[in-house]
């Protein structure tokens, strides 16, 4: 059959008899048994010592095929070992010459399942497989599949489209994994999107697979970076920036100097990676990072495009923003203005480089974005005044009652604060992190005071997945406040519900929050929320699924009709039951 034919493909070219030849011999002969014996002698294993042993095996009922197969397997193992050994011994030119000769002789048998592993092994050890052989492998789906990654790299480096087809599903998977974490049903302040350390993240399946595909091949590494840049431009999805940094650091972990030494971002990324691990930029590392930025030479400004992409990674932004908030608190204690703190200015410089990544790569104009003076002279001092307000209020609360000045908590926000959050991207990012900070401190007063400023923010940042993921996590710390109608009205009606109908992701985050906290919410409020959050025809599957989960949970909480009808009888005075005294 055709299967048989494939099994012995290529034997004839080498002058080795196959099934077809036996068929021909038998068709044209007068004494079939003699012919078979002769065929066996000519094509059997040529070892004199075996001639007497074979009939002995026949007596034991061992089929010749089984015997030949076991000899063959044994020989193949030996050959595979030998090929791997040749690849390591002698002078470089000589060993590769040997392997090339071996490939020349064996390649015609590459379709034979039994021989294929040997041919593949020879190719795997050749740093340059002849172009003609690569083309033949590429043209055959099954051969291409069976190839070692070492051979595929040689094919990919001259076939960007084919490499793109291999990489594309991995990149899709990566983005999906990130989104699943952001929308996960586990809401916690301890375990959030930013909890895993950089080292842990780099062990992820996609990063490991890409690292393996790239090997030490700079050309393939460049191609992957090009894919990431293109996708980032097309989608504005910042997770591609994370992958850009993770990939470089994964190669760094493996000490692939061939690549690390030629990526101009390597040392900067390595230093930033250490900051991300600590979730803080300390003074020593700040100096180092500044040195890299100041060291960008004339004519090499293009590296800013890459650095900005590294800084646009949400894990980097998170670290820079947290460090900024910490610095501002320190400045309040030291009575120092933001413009007098070089460390703070550096953090802002890196934040604006990161936030400007998309524009820079899109416009191909490689220069650092201008920092608005007002950010430093007006906005940050305003945040510091909020810190002071909290401090004053808390001190006042602690005074003995006769000295209390009955200072109400300031409920209004400066109009300038709202304007900054709408018009200035960096101000908005820092403002949002300040709000996360006060929520984490369970500072309900400050939270309710600043919340109205979140309804309209720069490019809707307050409704972005990362912010809402962190906010919902931090709000679990204010769980008890959800029993208060007023708090719920501010949070839900005043903030979340303003965007639910136009932003599917906000709808999802509110449902996540309620799934987690529904038992704490004022019952009347819960009813109206359940109505307000009902999915529409346009809602996606995720929203419907979450809404159904919530409905099920709420159904379980409702008292059964039997309990409801019995309530009136409880109004009778209860008989007093003596409490049993402990004996």
Automatic annotation (TrEMBL):
Protein's organism: Nyctibius grandis
Domain of life assignment: Eukaryota
Gene Ontology annotations for the cellular component aspect, listed alphabetically: NELF complex
Name of the encoding gene: Nelfb
Pfam family, one: COBRA1
Region of interest (Disordered), ranges: 557-583
GO BP, sorted A to Z: negative regulation of transcription elongation by RNA polymerase II
Protein name as it appears in the record: NELFB factor
